[in-house]
Amino acid sequence: MVSMTLGIDVACRAEHQATFAVNGRPVWRGRKFFTRPAELERLWADLDLDDPAELTVVLEPTRNAWIVLAQWFRRRGARVVMVPTTQSADLRAYFSKHTKNDRLDSEVLARLPLLHPEGLREFTGNGSADPLRRLTKQRSTMVKRRTAVYSRIDAQLELLGPGWYAVLGSDYGKAALAFLARYADPHAVLRLGQARLARFLQARSRGQYGPEPARALVAAAKETLLLWGPDGMDFAELAADIAAEAEQAIFLNGQIKEIEERIANLYAEADPEGIIASAPGVGPVTSAVIAGRVGDPHRFTSLAAIRAYSGLVPKTSQSGTRDPNLGLTKAGDPLLREALFMAADHARLVDPQLAAKYVRLMSGDRHRDSAVCHLAANLLTRIAACWRTGQPYVIRDVDGREITEAEGKAIVKARYKIDQKKRVAAAGRRMKQRRIQAADRESQKSLSAPTSRPATTTVDTTQITVEVA
């Protein structure tokens, strides 16, 4: 059987380079082209295919530039596969360790289906062109940006004294942000007065704020002036800085709300049966992240492949009797791992099977984060199995009996508790082990290398002789 492959080294701004190979032997190399219809048509004509289904196009997922090429060739009937950049880099180093160029990269990709067919992943979805995938990432980025803005507001309010954040808190609502955007100057608060400030807060909090917060803010403003004295800081400039941060937070809140509405609509289309959301610990945002970042669950060859995609599987470097614990690969989607970690931490409080595994893992010297990562991989496997079969998640007791969420919470609370004393003792043992390992690493250094440990050398004064001239 004839195997025809087209390896394309994708560039973002420069020309792509392609190599066409038949049965692993290059027919032509280094064909340059841009992602333009006319140039793609010329490239397709040069292939001179009798059956487009016989062609395999091999791409590396380079930013978003590869998506357009993948869609174009797939629409023509070719089979499009992806290869991780790390695998292609290792194979390129085998061919030429000290040379790296676009032509060689395209040749490596063209030969890859013959050399390592198991490492290829067929492109079946829309990748980064999927709006749900993009929006979940965008929401995560905006939430982290908003958190940074809130932290800066906290730091700036500390200059005004504790009375301000005692009233406004750290989880700023609409009324608090509106107040900070206009009246972060204590002089402005006193000029406004308690009555008008109370009406301002009530209007922007829909009646939730009464006269008490206004009175407390006026008192906080007076306290600030007493703390700084008559020759204090420039409160007008500080208020301008706080207003800039508050306006950013208001804008981000509006954007996040709009994005969450779009995410809810897209998730309803991607998972109309709500199978992902049926899992314990998986809320509206987390379910959308899993659906958007995993994509089509059937594109993976097995459940183990889905776990590997999440990066929640341990590294392996076994040789003879040596099998060290190297931690997780973290080779997959970081947003997916973050969502699964938070979901697993909540699911262990509802699902008795996950709670039992958590207690078993924590009975040793394992760190809590390590145990939750194990649960996250387990939870992803269950969600993927339900997703692929079209069946909702069912909470069961350790004996397999189906139970409700309320029953699961009661069972976990009654049976599966972690002894805090054992956790503290285990943390102490882990700390002691890390110190021993650090000391061992330091003892392997040169004797003349600087050390962080105190010097142990003592001077024997009895051996010192003084020569008298």
Automatic annotation (TrEMBL):
Residues 427-461 are annotated as: Disordered. It holds the Pfam family Transposase_20. Residues 6-161 form the Transposase IS110-like N-terminal domain. Keywords: Coiled coil. This is IS110 family transposase. InterPro entries: Transp_IS110-like_N (IPR002525), Transpos_IS110 (IPR047650), Transposase_20 (IPR003346). PANTHER family: TRANSPOSASE FOR INSERTION SEQUENCE ELEMENT IS1111A. The keyword tRNA processing does not apply. Residues 275-358 form the Transposase IS116/IS110/IS902 C-terminal domain. NCBIfam families: transpos_IS110. It comes from the Bacteria. GO terms for biological process: DNA transposition. The keyword Coiled coil applies.
